[in-house]
Specification:
Elements (H helix, E strand, L loop, with lengths): L5 E3 L2 E3 L1 E5 L5 H5 L6 H18 L1 E3 L13 E6 L2 E5 L2 E4 L3 H11 L7 E5 L2 E7 L4 E6 L2 H14 L15 E5 L3 H11 L3 E4 L4 H15 L14 H14 L5 E4 L6 H12 L5 E5 L5 H9 E2 L11 E2 L1 H4 L4 E5 L6 H13 L1 E3 L11 E3 L3 E6 L3 H6 L5 H7 L2 E4 L10 H16 L6 E2 L1 H8 L7 H15 L5 E2 L25 H13 L9 H10 L3 H16 L9 H9 L6 H12 L7 H7 L2 H4 L2 H12 L6
Parallel strand pairs: 3-5, 3-8, 4-5, 8-11, 11-12, 13-20, 13-21, 14-17, 17-20, 22-23
Antiparallel strand pairs: 1-2, 6-7, 7-9, 9-10, 15-16, 18-19
Helix pairs in contact: 7-8, 9-11, 11-13, 14-16, 17-18, 19-20, 19-22, 20-21, 21-24, 22-24
């Protein structure tokens, strides 16, 4: 479906940019003495082209009588005057058009329709002809310029692939040109002699599959090429029943994109979400597949799983790399055959299996390919999970979206916090944000930063650079005269909560963050970690009461060490961690459960003595 770019005369449509010497000649001839008739001739050609492709030109308020229009259209000729009656190439015209819209924070054209042949050289006023005709100017000159300007976009693979979708329009035979056009980086071709119904159908298809179309729901915000290409990828994989893997950093917006895919899939069933991180395998299996009464301890009634509940719709599995090995085994057949069964034994007369119709969306911020190669994630499951892939760009690749995102987030904060005002960033604050890389948690980091700023200035709407400065990146106030950093207790709790939920990793803490937690919340993180370590230790014991060190670390961190020695090193790193001044080891030494296990006791003692650092 074409997604609206704007509204004019009551019609909401996307926009295309047409780069064509003849159709763009209206502006080329306009205002030049003796060329008014050629300007008029060019205008008539433009009107016919718009009627054929279903376009409403910027210079035609009436829409040229176009019924059921497909898009708005802006035109550039790709040419400029070099002498009184001589025309030379201006391949930068399309690039300037894109940059101007970017500076105005306007969405880019959804698509470029690029002519193949261009007229150049001296212009004969008597018959309206040019001296030269360059047969491949569009693909040989203009398209490479667009690629050079915009191919840096990380969401588009291949250095020869333009981040701006380009479709060639030409009167030359499509069969001969199509392979060359695709090789040069264009998405395809539409013949200028194509029947109007077919031309419009093809244009709609290119817009839906490749168009730089903003989210028409207004939920996902951004006009950057990286983001809009991501949305285009999402619309492509939304069709059909194939499973999709979303890859992106923490906080980049994978869950929001999953909902976008569901909304564009045409599926009428419900949208369900399963968060795999931080759940033991038994609970993961029960939530996904459902369970019968007494299937395991705590299963006091029959319960359908999320797969059953999502029948006819979509199930989003977040952090699929954290799905336990046993549950990975259980997922193989359902993903292949669309058949599953609840955990436990069904009552008499009830079928053990159930069939379902669910589109699965999976997401992870980990290198799941490497996990599969290392045996920590089943390779045969990955091939079922990754039937389609969407790369979600990090915020640092969407810097030009910061203004839109900030206004969107501030608007939501003002509404939810009932501030009674409309907060905004001044120019210095916007510049401050552009200097950040948001490497910790991307959009979530921006949201937290702006939330802190609004909390600190509920009444004053203007937010300055100091309110969003780098010093506030981890919740640290600016340094005082003594040089010591202070850390608000609420922010320390927020950071600790993010660590517990897995949104941040312990090893990713900076020294300032770690010291802030340990000083602002003395003892609490250590006590919490020791309690979690006790739970993991109990869960890792076999029937013979022997501790499986590999299983213990898997229970505690969700990582999969290959040997017991590697697992013990991970535990020692936590016990001896400098950031918390070995408080974990101290608290662990006071735990009868941990000290009763001889090898754990040895690790605790070594950490307290802080020897060589190797267990």
């Amino acid at each position: 479906m074409p997604i609206p770019e704007g509204t004019r005369n009551g019609i909401s449509l996307p926009r295309v940019l047409v780069v064509d010497d003849e159709l763009g000649a209206v502006e080329l001839f306009k205002g030049r003495d003796g060329l008014s008739r050629w300007e008029e001739a060019a205008r008539k050609r433009r009107v016919r082209f718009c009627q054929q492709f279903g376009l409403i030109s910027d210079d035609d308020d009436e829409g040229a009588g176009v019924t059921k229009p497909v898009a708005y259209a802006s035109f550039v000729s790709g040419l400029c005057w070099s002498t009184s009656f001589g025309v030379t190439a201006d391949p930068e015209a399309a690039i300037r058009y894109f940059r101007t819209r970017e500076e105005r924070e306007e969405p880019p054209p959804a698509l470029v329709l690029l002519d193949l042949q261009f007229n150049l050289g001296a212009f004969d006023e008597s018959n309206g002809s040019f001296q030269l005709k360059n047969l491949n100017y569009g693909t040989d000159v203009i398209l490479p310029k667009l690629i050079k300007a915009f191919a840096e976009d990380k969401s588009v693979p291949g250095s020869s692939w333009c981040a701006i979708p380009v479709v060639i329009v030409s009167s030359l035979p499509k069969e001969a040109l199509d392979p060359i056009i695709r090789e040069r980086g264009a998405r395809g071709m539409i013949g200028k002699d194509t029947r109007p119904e077919e031309a419009r159908r093809l244009l709609r298809g290119y817009l839906e599959d490749h168009g730089l179309l903003p989210d028409e729901r207004g939920i996902l915000v951004g006009y950057s090429l990286a983001f809009l290409n991501c949305l285009a990828s999402a619309r492509r994989v939304a069709r059909g029943d194939g499973n999709v893997l979303l890859l992106g950093e923490s906080g980049a917006g994978k869950e929001g994109l999953a909902r976008y895919i569901h909304d564009h899939s045409g599926r009428l069933g419900p949208y369900k979400v399963f968060h795999a991180a931080g759940r033991p395998e038994e609970l993961q299996a029960g939530e996904l597949f459902g369970h019968w009464k007494e299937a395991y301890t705590g299963a006091d009634s029959d319960r359908p799983g999320l797969i059953e509940e999502a029948n006819g719709g979509t199930l989003f599995v977040d952090e699929v790399a954290d799905v336990g090995a046993g549950v990975q085994n259980l997922l193989l057949r359902p993903l292949q055959e669309k058949v599953a069964e609840r955990m436990g034994r069904p009552p008499a007369g009830r079928p053990a299996e159930y069939r379902f119709d669910v589109k699965f969306l999976f997401a992870t911020n980990k290198d799941i390919g490497s996990l599969a190669e290392g045996g920590q994630f089943r390779a045969d499951l990955l091939s079922r999970v990754q039937q389609g892939t969407v790369l979600v760009p990090p915020l640092r690749e969407r810097i030009c979206d910061l203004g839109l995102l900030s206004r969107h987030i501030l608007g939501k904060l003002d509404k939810s916090l009932q501030t009674g005002t409309q907060h905004f960033l001044d120019s210095q604050a916007r510049e401050e944000l552009t200097r950040r890389n948001f490497a910790r948690s991307n959009i979530r980091e921006l949201e937290n930063l702006l939330r802190d700023a609004v909390h600190a200035h509920r009444i004053e709407p203007r937010l300055t650079a100091a309110d969003v400065s780098v010093a506030n990146q981890i919740g640290l106030a600016p340094q005082g005269p003594s040089g010591a950093n202070s850390f608000r207790s609420t922010q320390a709790h927020d950071l600790l909560f993010a660590l517990i939920k897995g949104e941040r990793q312990w090893e990713s803490l900076s020294v300032l963050e770690a010291k802030a937690i340990s000083s602002e919340l003395p003892g609490f993180p250590a006590q919490l970690l020791v309690r979690l370590l006790e739970i993991a230790l109990q869960a890792s014991r076999s029937q013979q009461e022997t501790v499986s060190w590999v299983r213990l670390v898997r229970q505690f961190w969700g990582i999969h060490p290959t040997t017991p020695q590697q697992a013990k090193r991970e535990i020692y790193r936590l016990l001896a961690a400098e950031w918390i001044e070995r408080r974990v080891a101290q608290a662990a030494s006071e735990s009868p459960l941990l000290m009763s296990e001889s090898k754990m006791r040895a690790l605790i003692v070594a950490a307290l003595q802080k020897g060589s650092g190797d267990a």
